[in-house]
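User: I'm putting together notes for a lab meeting next week and I want to include a structural view of one of the chains we've been expressing. I don't have a solved structure, so I'd like a prediction I can at least talk through. The sequence is below, exactly as it appears in our construct file.
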Amino acid sequence: MSTVSTDHHDRVLIVRIEREERRNAINRETAEGIEAALNLLDDDPDLWVGIITGTPSIFCAGTDIRERADLRMPRGGEYGVIRRRRNKPLIAAVEGYALGGGFEIALACDLIVASATAQFGLPETKRGLVATSGALFRAPRALPINVARELLITGRTLDPERAKDLGVVNAVTAEGKALDEALVMAAEICESSPTSVSLSLKAIDALYADADAVGWEVTDDAKDAVLRSPDIAEGLDAFASRRTPRWSGLPPA
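Assistant: Thanks for the context. Below is the predicted structure for the 253-residue chain, given as structure tokens.
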């Protein structure tokens, strides 16, 4: 059974991550499914807007660290979406947890709709890791800097109302209604010229192109450093064993 499904609503493509037994964590098959779905969105002229969502209880728990697969896709980068150069808007419809790479998928979208059950978090440091799919620079861009720091270094979560107040979430709905509201937004977008929408998004992306390049450089530096640290093995073992990590402390400067 595929872990990603698609559905058409007029000019809108809905992409569903459906791996409930693993909290919709992304493995290679799921990344390939997202890549294929978003390639369809990009390439089909009859599709004007995309929505990415999960299952009714959870959006996405990020990378399936149990499998440790290569999740970089040819066109979309990580998970098939994180580095994608899109010319059509993509909305995240979030029910339940969007953690780690799940939050990074949402941050890679143009709009975020969250239900009352949504929780956004970046728990990587609790595993001896760092956020490697854009959050190190997209979170400080989307949120006040101290809130971004809070999420990145404490592992705390952000509830939907606070996320909306801070500007990272566009709309909050009742439980189970995030996709419905995302479809309303998508229909409103489809009332606009698709050329004008595409050019508007392209202009916004151009404003941040240089900053994104720096962001990926510093992300790669952090990733390389954490891979050399003993904390990564300890963090992953502690996570798998459901115990408290025993950190080694900072290496000499």
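A couple of points you could mention at the meeting. The radius of gyration is 18 Å. The chain has a mean pLDDT of 96.

User: Perfect, that's what I needed.
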